[in-house]
Amino acid sequence: MAAFDLALEQGADGFEFDVRRTSNRQAVICHDPKFNRLTVSRHTLKQLTASCASPNLVQPCLEDVLSRYGRAAFLNIEVKVRGMERAVVRALQHDPPERGYLVSSFLPGVVRELHSLGPKLVLGILCQSSWQLRRWSRLPGSHVVPHYRLLSRKLVDEIHDAGKQVVTWTVNERKQMLRAAELGVDGIISDDTRLLCELFSKQPRPV
Q1: What is the pLDDT of residue 94?
Q2: What is the DSSP string of 44-82?
């Protein structure tokens, strides 16, 4: 939560975060398969929270993020694993973000299932390789989310011509940010939100 707060303080429109499924099917905020050496999918949210060094620390779940930031930030939700699509859809239907959102995944099956459960959801497919990128036109969703090394003018134009938007990641250097903006992307994900926001503070910015 501290990182999310910092990104917004530095001027970002929103932030990206990962969700995984706990053993009791809660959507917990966690990038790695393990949290404090505990396998997320084999433990409950309560057990994960209990593993924290301080009792004041709470392992947040998707509902916590939606409640706290849904009126203040654009939320980019990456679904890391299969089997939690219904939990994500329920959470978004119960507390829809007011500043916009995107649900993305590297897993085509997850994107298809989310679309089946919620045809109006804002969805995107994540791509880290050219092989993954080939499937973007065959999948539902309004966004394509390629790694910045995959970007080209031709790709951005093709995606835009198909009526979809391009959001790229993880763009951490000034030169990369300027190139992505020049190519016409619709959004940039960066670990360096201060640099990103300062760079585009005096011009229209794709963030």
Answers
A1: 96
A2: -HHHHHHTSSSTT----BHHHHHHHHTTTSEEEEEE-ST
